[in-house]
Amino acid sequence: MMRAQNIEQAIIHDLTAHGTCQVEDMVERLAGFTWNQVFSAIDRLSRDGTLALQRPARFGYEISITSGRKRTPEAGVYR
Question: How many domains are there within the chain?
Answer without folding.
Answer: 1
